[in-house]
Known about the structure:
This protein is an alpha/beta fold.
Amino acid sequence: xxxxxxxxxxxxxxxxxxxxxxxxxxxxxxxxxxxxxxxxxxxxxxxxxxxxxxxxxxxxxxxxxxxxxxxxxxxxxxxxxxxxxxxxxxxxxxxxxxxxxxxxxxxxxxxxxxxxxxxxxxxxxxxxxxxxxxxxxxxxxxxxxxxxxxxxxxxxxxxxxxxxxxxxxxxxxxxxxxxxxxxxxxxxxxxxxxxxxxxxxxxxxxxxxxxxxxxxxxxxxxxxxxxxxxxxxxxxxxxxxxxxxxxxxxxxxxxxxxxxxxxxxxxxxxxxxxxxxxx
Length: 279
């Protein structure tokens, strides 16, 4: 189940309200259903590379719930906003929702059959440290898994079996690639696991022909930016880096690791912030 806040934003919202942007939620959903025309970076040269991966997970999306784009700072009844109960589902993804909704979510999700809550942050203010702690405590009490990747493409296995199953089934999280090499260049790049917005497929397609040296970083940067990544350019205090840049460093690291697996050692740009990322 996907839960997010979004829709039209009034020109003059109430000053005591919070406004939510659904740009990332929409991209995530469009990737999961492999919406026709979603990836259009290659224009007339498109060879529909995404279709070779069997990406369409439409049958696996139990429900999509869109909450209002503008909500009061304090909610009198967050459970009521969710309708009192959720439809049956096994995994709950909450993208940029009111934090009081997040606090109410574990009990409702558990009763609906969910085994895991994943609430990514594509901007610094999406999920506070205190809310993460409270939701973790509630999920532990209920025997559920939970993860708070910042950004979503930093989600890695090992947090909880239900998180691992989610990643494996939808093939999303921290990007993984497999490369076939030619004489001094990348002959073919295949995606094993993509960033949840689908950016990794566009990067992989454009890696073909890239050199086997540090200049491959220019190819990664060009196509990762132009997909584009829509994470925030505001510096996150916890990471000491912008979340958008972390998304880029994730793709540099994925390419570096794939090259190493193919027998080529190349040092690509990194950031100390990668070591500070926690689920």
